[in-house]
Amino acid sequence: MTGPQSVSLVLLLPLLLPLGPNRCAVAQRCPQACVCDNPRRHVACRHQNLTEVPTAIPELTQRLELQGNMLKEIPPAAFRDLPYLTHLDLRYCQVELVAEGAFRGLGRLLLLNLASNRLSALPQEALDGLGSLQRLELAGNLLEELRPGTFGALGAVTTLNLAHNALVYLPAMAFQGLVRARWLQLSHNALSVLAPEALAGLPALRRLSLHHNELQALPGMALSQARGLVRLELGHNPFTYAGEEDGLALPGLRELRLDHGALQALDARAFALCPRLHTLDLRGNQLDALPPLQGPGQLRRLRLQGNPLWCGCRARPLLEWLARARVRSDGACWGPRRLRGEALDALRPLDLRCPEFGAAAEEEANELAAARPRAPAGASGEEAGAAGPCPRTCVCVPESRHSSCEGRGLQAVPRGFPNDTQLLDLRRNRFPVVPRAAFPGLGRLVSLHLQHCGLTELEAGALAGLDSLLYLYLSDNRLSGLSAAALEGAPRLGYLYLERNRFVRVPGAALLALPSLFSLHLQDNALDHLAPGDLEGGRALRWLYLSGNRLTRVSPGALAPARELEKLHLDRNQLDEVPSEALEGLPALLELQLSGNPLGALRDGAFRPVGRSLQHLFLNSSGLEQISPGAFSGLGPRLRSLHLQKNQLQTLPALPGLSELELIDLSGNPFRCDCQLLPLHRWLAGLNLRVGATCATPPSARGQRVKAAAAVFEACRGRAARKAKWTPAPRPGARGTPMKGRWQRVNEEYKGLEGHRP
């Protein structure tokens, strides 16, 4: 066809073709609070205090970022006008409710990020309409339970992240519908019970993360439902024993992590039904002996560091088995004294001998007895393992060794629990005092929950006989003090939770009774000063949480006793400067939280005392207006993450010394993109990271990324280069122009150019 008819058809053709995501679209409006990148179909409305999903977002948008707003609620069909959306970011939006059908119409969505919100529940149909979703992020919420069917419409999801919530129980078929899920993250919850069928219906699951929970026994029956598991992470749980009776049967398992728990004994056939196990991580437990393992014939790596291994003659079978099975191991001998500190893999079986008689034999027997955890008071042999009756108002579960009297209105601590109880839950009752010897016969107790009980006092000897106690929860009570006498009966206590009480000083005297204290939680109390001596008893302390208090000062030397400290959380206090002198003598500090303090400025060398160890530094929401060029000097290559978001920074020096950063967040700062910011622009341009820094001024640059705004800084480069070319070299001995003065002049010239732009 030729002539006018063919011309008409060509003109009509665009009207006949349907509009699709690959079709070039005409310019569309962009919401006022957002930045729209139409060629990339990317809209960002970050940290704008939005209270509802903005309207007028271009229909073809594929990536929508709304993090850092105040949405509170996601209503039904909130995104129905965005059918091409593939990535939706709703982090830090204070979301408390997701209505049923909130995401209907998003049939192309691949990633939904709802992390770090305030969700306490998910309605049955909240996630309907997401048939293509591959990744769902729900970490950092307040979820306490999962209802079967919640994930029933998510047949394409491969990764589900539920870490850092408040889950205590997984019901049967909790994840029904996730037929393609490969990685399930459930770490950092309060899980103590998994229903036997909790993990049923996950045929594709390859990795399960359950570390940092409250599991009192290895949930072998529940775990064995996920037959395809390759990697299982169970570290940082308080169970003390693993054996064949736990029933762990995972034929494809290659890596099992049981690190940093409370294991005191391991049966030789504990993993007999895991024939392909290659790596077993048992670091940081209480194992003084280990039998040759039967069943995992492909085991090649056994990690034993941090266990009190006893290298007497009874360890010969272990060494012989390691050599015969060609298993690489680490770990060192705790005793006897002649072998203390010797690497296990450097010993030969003949090096391990038992003195048969005399003083040497008696001395070694005494050493071994001292090394082992003490038996429960008043119990031994069959009597120690016999389960006793259960108080009338409580529930005692023999299989899990859990006893619970939660919310029964009790006015006194009940007695008569089974002797083998490992977890005792007395939360939400009404007894103001825990009396002396309140828990008789519970020498095997590992975890004790006393939250929300109106407690004002623990009497002397309250914890008498709790030799195995590792976790003590006293949060949300009315305690203003603790004595050493009250805690003396729990020498192995490692985790003490005192959040939301009435402490005005750290209970330093009480810590003297806790030589094994690993983690101390004092968030949201009324502390106003950390003074020398407050942590005198915290010499084993690794994690210290003091967030949300009224601290105005941390005195030099206050932290000195805790030389092994790895995490220090001082966020949400009233500190007006970095307590640099107090950080002296902390050679192991890895994480420092200072966000939410009125710091205002950072001086030179503020973090130099911890420069050789620090990996994560949080300074967000600290009112920072100025950062000295040498503020981060000394931090060097170990720093992995730097959080500076939501401050008042208009300028920031380049940070070339931080060469190994994996994350730097500069979002939510009102950067002034002039020549003074050119060094930062150049440094950021060389980083393969998303930093979130955008220009606030001048108006012509508003919303542009500092890292990518090459045109904004072009005039600075040109003027600076010409000035360097035209300026004669200074005579020997002559004083050169100060760098600050040079940049000021270039900046003034740039501002002049800015005023003459069309």
TrEMBL record:
Superkingdom of the organism of origin: Eukaryota
NAD found in the keyword field: yes
Signal peptide: 1-27
LRRCT domain boundaries: 307-355, 669-717
Biased composition (Low complexity): 367-388
Residue ranges, compositional bias (Basic and acidic residues): 745-758
Pfam family, one: LRR_8
Keywords: Immunity, Inflammatory response, Innate immunity, Leucine-rich repeat, NAD, Receptor, Repeat, Signal
LRRNT domain location: 29-63, 389-423
SUPFAM superfamilies xref list: L domain-like
UniProt keyword annotation of Repeat present: yes
InterPro entries membership: Cys-rich_flank_reg_C (IPR000483), Leu-rich_rpt (IPR001611), Leu-rich_rpt_typical-subtyp (IPR003591), LRR_dom_sf (IPR032675), LRR_TM_domain-containing (IPR050541), LRRNT (IPR000372), Toll-like_receptor (IPR017241)
Region of interest (Disordered), residue spans: 365-388, 724-758
Similarity remark: Belongs to the Toll-like receptor family.
Protein name: Chondroadherin-like protein isoform X1
Annotated gene: CHADL
